[in-house]
Amino acid sequence: AAKRRGHVAGKSAAAADGAGASPSIANPNKKVFGDDDDAGTGDAQHTVNVPPPPAAPSHHRPAEKIVLPSTTAPWFSRTLDGNKATHFEEYYRRQAILPDEEWGSFLSHLRKPLPVTFRMSNMASHANGVAEALAEGKRLLRPRQQLYNEVTGRPIPPPKELRWCNGWQLGCDKMALKYSRTPELREFQRWLVKYNSTGVLTRQAVDSMVPAAILGVEPHHFVLDMCASPGSKTTQCIEQLNANNTGAGSIPTGCVVANDINPRRAYFLVRRCAALGSATGSLMVANHHAQWFPNPGVPIRTLPEGIQSACAGGGLDARTSSRDPAPAATREDSGRYPEGVYDRIICDVPCSGDGTLRKNPQIWSEWRPEFAMGLHQLQLRIAQRGAALLKVGGHMVYSTCSFNPVENEAVVAELVRRCGGALEIVDASDRVADLKRRPGMKHWRVVTMVDDETVEYPTYEDSQRESVSVGLRRKFERSMWPPKSGVTKLGKRIKGPPLERCMRLMPHLQDMGGFFATLLKKVAPLPGPKDPTRAGVERAMKTGEEGTGAGEGPFGSGTGGAPRRRSEHTYAPASTSLVESLRREWGGTETWVNEFAAGLHVRSDTNRALTYLSPGVRAACVDQPGVARIKCVWSGVRVFEKRGTAPGERREVITKGDESAEGADGRGPVTADGVSAYRLTQEGAAVLADHVGDDRKFALPARDLKQLLKEPGKEIPLKSFTPAVANAARSVRPGSVIVELRKAGGGGAAEIDDSCPSLAVELTAGGGLKVDWRYRKGLEGAPKAAAAAILRRLDGPSRGYDDYGGDEEWGEDDDQFY
Predict the structure, then answer these.
(1) pLDDT in tens, 515-546
(2) CA–CA distance from 201 to each of 11, 89, 452, 626 (Å)?
(3) What is the pTM for the complete model shown?
(4) CB under 8 Å to 49, separation ≥6 — which residues?
(5) To the nearest whole percent, how much of the chain has pLDDT over 70?
(6) Residues annotated as catalytic (active site), given as ranges
(7) Residue 22: beta bridge partners?
(8) Residue 785 contacts residue 197 (beta carbons within 8 Å)
(9) What stretches of 535-679 show up as alpha helix (H) in DSSP?
């Protein structure tokens, strides 16, 4: 009891402290007394609790708490001890990623929330919307009076224009903007919601815009986004691809393939890109491991003739049931890897994510350098696969949202080394001249912090000593250390890769998140393995040998196994009879036969929907010899969909039970009510309008178009429209029609106003017109926003967004976009 009270053998704690007591490492408030303190009492090496002093001495720093930004993760502590360096700070100070004089500003920005940033669309189809948005938001983007934060009372910096990405950066964060009571900020929030719903602008972090900006995507490029979700970079590439797309004759010949390993995130990516409307005709979303993404240019070998006949009639695909070697085991006669098929690749690999501390402050308490070590090998494999899929002369961006050189420069250096001169690091500083950044690192350290013990390993051999635990030893790779450079002992000069050309984006330079990006160019084919005749490879190349696991099918299977069933993730051309019946129904022009018909594809024998795939998607993802390997989640623009197949919709009965059967007038399949069996979608109207005649295409004056859009989904009787429109509608069979805006004082197809997009409208059997606007789950507010945008153009700037009910708020899922 006396010891617990701080007394030892009648001595006070203060006396004991003056007699040579040493502080305990485990607890600063504990003292360890040695033999010299009290040799005759038998209390040697006892630990005694010392009560804290009544007041802190003047030389001690007072306790300082740093409050982190609020987040959706409530389980972590939102405060940091200002007197104690975190693992993050200790590690990166040792790495010397910044000069000492910049550390204060660097840490200060990391502890602040990320400002709101967005970019304007550069698609030709959105040019009018962008001009309207900038005109309406002029006083918001360039305010004349100073605004102040309600909570802190500090002035809010005015928005900054980012010319290199056609974007803007606000002076406040997302939470301050969303919940502010300041009228100007509330109006700004409504402005963002309004134009984000129609695709005119996109909320995206500044650092996330860099890969697509330096990649230089052009309309004829085949682009691959290897780790695409949530899709901000994918939408940026689609917009660049469709920058000059104004309709027939200007459709891009390239395409964008967006891949993600998780099926759920892949479908979320589909939802994100669906807001771009008809531009998704140049998109394919796939679901694969990025490090094993298949090369569609490598042909799938066919079965011997006897096995083909055995597969026939069994619902099996003879092309993918081959007993020949798997494509993964095939190679060209020269021993090189197969040629790549993509002109541009974004390789934004999974990473530790410590560059997102401003959005995810919980990383402060979770961060360890071992996270980066565990991802290094995966990042390198994904980058190598990207290099193999890249065409000679093409460009690839390797990027992470991390500061760690083990994930950044180490991967790039090893990738360049393994490619044997086929890849070069490109200086992309001229592509984003206004972007502030730091050059890549040439020297770094490999450090671990296991059990709060910081250990540095100068070489790979040091990390493999017996004193290092087996589990930790396995995390090290030789490629984690900096490449050798300089002059050797023998006087030989070793020149390492030009890592200074890499880009390091720091939060304090331009008030953004942390990011790393490198632009690489493929200048030669990849060299093949040095020993292509190894026993294992030779065994795999033999047809039908037991135990190889690579003898059958494109993915390999055991000898004697059942052939693989026909893939459900492919698009097949629509039947000729169905396409021809739709052409007669819509009065297809010559371009229908020459261009449009070849792009109509289906995914099942039931023909539930007809999807239009652009020439670029067909060339890169449909017509390639090995396309059956790609697991396609979604592609193209859905132009027609069968009535009665939408969720919650009454199933329609098609005449003769055949979707390709002709109606009584010989112009395509019809329902029991005499309505055309296939409904035209809104996004499909923009694609179809250039390929049909005037039979089912009406030019409406502004007055009639307003009636349709003020109440989407409501049937408007034909007598409410002008006589010319009503008479034209009565002359055609009920079903879908295309409606366009007629210029004031004009008439005919030559006087169509391009400021309003082509709309799909339903001509009902009861004699009325209605806008049947359908969107996929998660975009329920898009029809209302799109209708409001068209009405604003018809009325001019005199009416506002709220006049048409455009008061949607951000949902919980919207935060995932940003």
Answers:
(1) 999 999 999 999 876 655 454 445 444 444 43
(2) 75, 36, 45, 37
(3) 0.80
(4) 4, 6, 29, 30
(5) 71
(6) 401
(7) 32
(8) yes
(9) 535-541, 576-586, 590-591, 615-617
